[in-house]
Structure formats: structure tokens, C-alpha cells
Amino acid sequence: MKKFLKNRRLLIILSTFILALIILAGSVSLRSSRETPFFGQRFSNNTIGIAAKVVNWPFEKLNQGIESMHDLLETYQENNYLQQKIDDLAQTKVRNSNLEKENKELKATLDLKASLTDYTLILGSVTSRAPGSWSDIVVIDQGLNSGLKKNMAVMSGAGLVGRVIEVNDTNAKVELITTTNKSASRFAVELKDSEGDYAHGIITGFDTKSGNLLLSQVANSKLIKKGTKVYTSGLAGRSPKGLLVGTVKKTTRDSFGLTDVIQIKPATDLNNFSVVSVVERKVSGD
């Protein structure tokens, strides 16, 4: 009896195993032949997929946010770097432009020194020029310690720019030839007319629109040709003779229409100079 029961148990197990294999094989065959899984499997798969998306969504957003912040930080740093390079380039251009301008002024000063054999030149630089007195006063970095004296003529490049009106130990004030001060001591100048005779006059002002100096009180002004060079005459006793002021641009009438006014193009840019030469006379002038 026991043996029969034992054999029956083995037969049941074997039958169950075979049935399971048949069901598994059928399931695999049926799944292969179906375009979609069974409802239960499909429901399970959909549930797992949705759960995975719900769980992964905040992590994906966080990762995207971190990547965006990293990209933004890199862009910000790159922008700062490029902006610094642009600023450095602009500063370099300005510095090169200033150096080039100073170099031209120094070359002109050397040419001036070679031509003015009767004078000693004291070189200096403009240290201050206030906007409110731009056309009137500049301050230079030479003074009593360098031998400067009041009323010395001051040039920049090859042209006259003004005269010393105040001297301190280490600096001096220069009144420009373009000054609007009515009580300023004006420069006496001379030039040759078309007949070869010398004509004399006084620098009386400055035309801000044209940038030209104004010369009046000239006899026979109609004989003065365009392009004629104008020099200091030394007749006023305050400036040496023979310093270049500029060239004749044109002749106009004064505001009252009574007398001729000769416009002179300055020999140097009176609005933009940084190197100056103070003229000290070595021999007595006229």
C-alpha cells in the first residue's frame, strides 16, 4: 500500500511538471504569435513604466537644471573673459594712439630744436587742463627748478601754443593763444604779402567753429595769400621772433563788416597736445 502511494505521488509530481512545461510552452508560443501581450502582462508593464517615469522625472529635471546652471556659469565666465579682452584691446589701442601722438610731437620738437639755434628749449608735459578753461589755461610739469620764467613762449610740435603766466617750483601755468580772456597779452606776428613786404598784426581771438586763429590790424590784408606762413614778430617784447604760429587759411570781415580778419590755421592741434617746449632765448631778440 505504501509503495502504491509513493508511486502515485511521483506520478502526480511528474504529471504536474509535464503540465507546467506544456503551459509554459503554450504561453511562449501564444505570446510569440500575438502582436500585443496579455492584458495582465500589459497592465503590469504599463504600471511599471508609469512608476519608473514618476520616479525618474524629478531626477531628470534636477540633472537638466544642474547642466543648465553649469552651461550658464561657463557662458558667464566666457563672457567676462571676452569682455576683459575687449577692454584690454581698447585700452591698448588708446595707449598706442597716445604713444604715437607723443612720438610725433617729440619728433616735431626735435625738428624745432634744430631750427631754433638762438633758443634753448625746456621740454615738459601737460599735467592738467580743466574743461571749464580748456581754451585758456594748461598746467605743465616744469617750473622754477627747470629755469622757467614768466612770459616765456611755449610751443608744441612745431607751432606756438601760448606763454607762461605763472611759475611755481615744479609746475607752471600756460595761457594759450586761444584764450578768451580779453585782458590777455596778445602775440604780435608778421608775414610776407604777395609783394614780398612784411605785414604785421595781432592775434586777437580764436574761431571755435573753424579752429582757426584770428589775425587783425594787418595793413594791405588783400595782398596776403592763402598758405602764407605766420611767425611771431618779437615786436611786443614778450615773445621771441620767428616762432611759427600757422598758415593763412582765408580772409574774412569782422562782425561789424569794417575791417579784414585773417584766419590762420594753427601749426599744431591746439585742442590736443601733451608735449610742450618752453622757449628760452639765448641771445637778445628784436
From TrEMBL:
Biological-process GO terms, alphabetical: regulation of cell shape
Keyword terms of this UniProt record: Cell shape, Coiled coil
Gene3D superfamilies reported for this sequence: Rod shape-determining protein MreC, domain 1, Rod shape-determining protein MreC, domain 2, Single helix bin
GO cellular component entries: plasma membrane
Pfam families in UniProt: MreC (PF04085)
Parts forming coiled coils: 82-116
UniProt cross-references to InterPro entries, sorted A to Z: Cell/Rod_1, Cell/Rod_MreC_2, MreC, MreC_beta-barrel_core
Domain Rod shape-determining protein MreC beta-barrel core: 126-280
Domain of life of the native organism: Bacteria
Annotated function: Involved in formation and maintenance of cell shape.
Protein family membership: Belongs to the MreC family.
Protein name: Cell shape-determining protein MreC
Protein source organism: Amylolactobacillus amylotrophicus DSM 20534
Lineage, uppermost ranks: Bacteria, Bacillati, Bacillota, Bacilli, Lactobacillales
